[in-house]
Design a protein that fits this description.
This protein is an all-alpha fold and about 90 residues long. The chain has one domain: Chorismate mutase (Chorismate Mutase Domain, subunit A, Up-down Bundle), CATH 1.20.59. The chain contains three helices and no strands. The longest helix has about 35 residues. The radius of gyration is 16 Å and the shape is flat. This is chorismate mutase.
Length: about 90
């Protein structure tokens, strides 16, 4: 059995991984923004966002996470992704 400190350390390591993954996602969003600009496409793509939220719904069920939480989380992530695409 883990101690409280060991579990907290694991949470810190997991949080560091989350931040690293978010940084990678935002870098990809910048690249997507550059391509959209070059191709004259709009930043917001509602059909793509619909696909993503269906995907997130599937994953939230697969991992037994509250769907509402996952939706709120990704609304924030996508909103900020749009900002870096501009």
């Amino acid at each position: 059995m883990y101690t409280l400190e060991e579990l907290r350390k694991q949470i810190e390591q997991t949080d560091a991984c989350l931040i690293e993954i978010l940084a990678k996602r935002f870098e990809l969003s910048k690249q997507i923004g550059a391509l959209k600009s070059k191709e004259g496409k709009e930043i917001v793509d509602r059909s793509r966002e619909k696909q993503l939220f269906e995907f997130y719904e599937h994953l939230s069920k697969q991992y037994h996470l509250p769907e509402e939480f996952i939706n709120r989380l990704f609304k924030i992530i996508i909103s900020n992704s749009r900002k870096v695409q501009k």
